[in-house]
Specification:
The complex is a heterodimer of chains A (329) and B (342). With 329 residues, chain A is α/β, with parallel strands linked by helices. Chain A has helices at residues 5-19, 42-46, 58-70, 89-96, 99-102, 132-136, 149-160, 208-221, 239-249, 264-275, 298-302, 308-320, 324-328, and strands at 2-4, 23-27, 51-53, 74-78, 112-114, 142-144, 166-168, 178-180, 192-195, 200-204, 226-230, 233-235, 252-259, 285-289. The mean pLDDT of chain B is 96. In chain B, strands 1-2-3-7-6 form a 5-stranded parallel beta sheet, with helices on both faces. A two-stranded antiparallel ribbon of chain B has the order 4-5. Chain B has one domain (15-322): Thiamin diphosphate (ThDP)-binding fold, Pyr/PP domains (Rossmann fold), CATH 3.40.50.970. The A-B interface holds A 28-29, 31-32, 35, 53-60, 83-84, 87, 121-127, 260-261, 288, 290-293, 295-304 and B 47-49, 96, 99-100, 103, 105, 107-110, 112-113, 125-129, 164-165, 167-169, 195-198, 202-204, 268, 323-326, 328-330, 333, 337, 339-342. Bound molecules: thiamine diphosphate. Thiamine diphosphate sits between chains B (76-78, 126-128, 162-165, 192, 194-196, 200, 256, 260) and A (28, 56, 58, 80, 84, 87).
Chain lengths: 329, 342
């Protein structure tokens, strides 16, 4: 049976809560289903003691989750929008991410921090951000960005089974996306080939996977075969799958919705350039948003968007480039 | 000319009636704006989420009636009313909501970030409670400027926020700061009972927002926020006190007559609860009061008609306005290294 991305996440959490009494969820308006309906019916099922309605107190939501975790609970923290998680950055970065290490391994912090990301219906600068790279930068955190219903099920399950903090970033524009679930577990750190191809590799994640697939379809009609790798998790990231793909195609584009400057694309591009120089037929390329806040008015908002045409153009440019070294072969 | 004779008391009454009529006009304009924002949201003309202040107009009108253009306010996600009451142009505001050229924020902000610095409106906010320290900082800025100039500065800041914001850290941090530095700021907590789908009191410890302010030594007054005369009177006293320095706190009890956003039917609230509050709607209440004070029904009705006409015009103009130049997406980012890819 097909489920939406939203329902897939709800099912993963409900199953984990049914299987393990230590799992609880806390956040604002969860009793009424959460702001997007991700928790609909769950308070009725698990009670207000486990689907906890909180005051508008992000710092306390995140901070208390750390305390709960240190004494053996497994909290799921709902931050509503990744933008509001910034009100709890100390609790997440200085506390959750470091407690295990600082205290010499005496405690663990198995929290899943749900932070929906992305541009969504003219939501402007404080409700549209994609901040995954910030968390990928932080030692002590895993970072997950599911792109499909199957992955929102499988990856949330994997996150819930992790004994250290996981920043779990669903994309607001994907809630209604339908797809079949897969019973096979999805481990953190394993990428997925969303579409095989020969001429270039597009590494991407979250909603941009779908944009890249549209670009690949268009490229295919014009005789360019692009492989789309859905990274799924940013930390740990699946170097093996990315390297294997780039070895086959010889060309890499990393595309993401987040701002390009210091985005996670930079990390992937750098590692691939450092590691696979011999295999590269063209310099690696990145494509992300310009370094501007997301505006409200649609024509302005669109300027911050990475579209299928942008990705296709970047791939065409990559394929048209052939480095001297490779050309000399 | 006096309606009641030419005594000193009659003149005072006339002034009072004129002031009330003026505040009623502000309330009617806010209501007309919000109704068209709601309509625009239904019609797909308003692009993002919109939080309506229908039912809360008396707080904005009554408080801002006591402010000068040089005074400052900060507001929340539910900020249209405060912005209009502070004197912003409703046509430019409607363009902003529609994402069209000519908007107060060039189409960059939308409803949730409505602002008009020309009239001292320092911004609505997408983050609950975030306006509080900013307002305190503006008050501190006024103080610093006065000290630098070596003479008193009469300007004040009014910080509007909802009952839900009192559970965030910046509420405590901001109030403490204002009191420690004795800053010229009036905190106005607009208690509309709800925070999104949550009944705020169920998740707020203690006797309420005013008690929290008092715990820090900030004098707090509670007012029926649907009674614009009472709001005006008390806000007048508090603003005068704040102009001399030192914060004050006003708790205005009101009710959010609509859902949290225009897209929210608010089905989690009992119909009787909403009906009871509809009976306390500040607009008809003020209209009745004006009539009881001797204002002709025709005059009162004309206020609503004029507001409707003004806002119909704003709506039509915004709808007909062109989209903003998309190059604006790259302006006002940063002076040293503008918006770009590298
Ligand atoms: C820090 C933060 N957390 C959560 C939200 C989501 N949110 C927007 S409005 C709102 C309710 C606010 O209630 P209140 O302060 O009482 O204002 P009201 O909506 O009633 O005007 C919430 C939770 C937010 N914008 N910012």
């Amino acid at each position: 049976m097909a489920l939406t991305y939203l329902e897939a996440g709800r099912r993963a959490l409900a199953e984990a809560m049914a299987a393990d009494k230590r799992v609880v969820a806390l956040g604002e308006d969860l009793g009424r289903g959460g702001v997007f309906g991700q928790y609909k019916g769950m308070q009725e099922q698990f009670g207000p003691g486990r689907i906890i309605d909180t005051p508008i107190s992000e710092a306390a939501i995140m901070g208390t989750a750390v305390g709960m975790a240190l004494v053996g609970r497994r909290p799921v923290v709902e931050m509503r929008f990744s933008d509001f998680a910034l009100c709890a950055v100390d609790e997440l970065i200085n506390q959750a991410a470091k407690a295990r290490y600082m205290f010499g391994g005496q405690g663990r912090v198995p929290v899943v921090v749900r932070q929906p990301i992305g541009m969504w219906r003219s939501s402007a600068a404080q409700h549209s951000q994609s901040l995954e790279a910030w968390y990928a930068h932080m030692p002590g955190l895993a970072v997950v960005c599911p792109a499909t219903p199957a992955d929102n099920y499988g990856l949330l399950k994997a996150a819930l089974a992790t004994d250290d903090p996981v920043v779990y970033m669903e994309h607001k524009d994907l809630w209604g996306l339908e797809g079949e679930l897969d019973a096979a577990p999805v481990p953190l750190g394993k990428a997925r080939i969303a579409r095989p191809g020969r001429d270039a590799t597009i590494v991407t994640w979250s909603k941009t996977v779908h944009v890249a697939l549209a670009a690949a379809a268009e490229l295919d009609r014009n005789g360019v075969s692009a492989e789309v790798v859905d990274l799924r998790t940013l930390w740990p990231w699946d170097k093996e799958t990315v390297f294997a793909s780039v070895r086959r195609t010889g060309r890499l584009l990393v595309a993401h919705e987040a701002v390009q400057v210091a985005g996670f694309g930079a990390e992937i591009a750098a590692v691939v350039a450092e590691t696979l120089d011999d295999a590269l037929k063209a310099p690696v390329r990145r494509l992300g948003a310009p370094r501007i806040p997301v505006a409200y008015a649609p024509p302005l908002e669109d300027r911050a968007r990475v579209g299928a045409a942008d990705i296709a153009a970047a791939v065409r440019a990559l394929v048209a480039t052939t480095r001297r070294a490779a050309a000399a072969e | 000319m006096s309606m009641t004779g030419n005594t000193a008391e009659a003149r005072r009454n006339d002034a009072h009636v004129a002031r009330l009529l003026d505040m009623y006009r502000t309330m009617a304009r806010i209501r007309a704006f919000e109704e068209r924002a709601e309509q625009g949201s239904r019609d797909g003309l308003v692009k993002g989420a919109v939080h309506l202040s229908i039912g809360q107009e008396a707080v904005a009108a009554g408080v801002c009636r006591n402010l000068e253009q040089s005074d400052f306010i900060t507001s929340t996600h539910r900020g249209h009313g405060h912005t209009i009451a502070k004197g912003a142009d409703v046509g430019a505001m409607m363009c902003e909501l529609f994402g069209r050229a000519g908007g107060t924020c060039e189409g960059k902000g939308g409803s949730m970030h409505i602002a008009d610095f020309n009239v001292g409106m320092l911004g609505a906010n997408g983050v609950v409670g975030a306006g509080i320290p900013i307002a305190v900082g503006a008050a501190h800025g006024i103080r610093l400027e006065a000290e630098a100039a070596g003479r008193p500065d009469p300007r004040v800041v009014v910080c509007f926020f909802g009952d839900g914001a009192i559970n965030r850290g910046p509420f405590l941090e901001g109030l403490n700061w204002a009191q420690v530095y004795k800053l010229p700021i009036l905190f106005v907590c607009e208690d509309n009972a709800w925070s999104a789908t949550t009944f705020t009191r169920a998740l707020s410890a203690g006797p309420g927002p005013a008690a929290r302010a008092e715990a820090l030594g900030i004098p707090a007054t509670t007012v029926d926020g649907n009674d614009v005369e009472a709001v005006d009177r008390i806000a007048g006293t508090l603003v005068a006190k704040v102009r001399g320095g030192g914060p004050a706190f006003l708790l205005a009890t009101t009710y959010r007559l609509k859902g949290h956003t225009a897209a929210d039917a608010g089905a989690y609230r009992k119909a009787e609860e909403v009906a009871a509050h509809l009976a306390r709607d500040p607009l008809p209440r003020t209209a009745e009061r004006l009539k009881a004070l001797g204002v002709e029904a025709g005059v009162v009705d004309a206020v609503v008609r004029d507001a409707a006409a003004e806002l119909d015009d704003a709506y039509a103009r915004a709808k007909a306005a062109p989209w903003p130049d998309d190059g604006l997406a790259f302006t006002d980012v940063l002076d040293v290294g503008a918006g770009t890819w590298r």
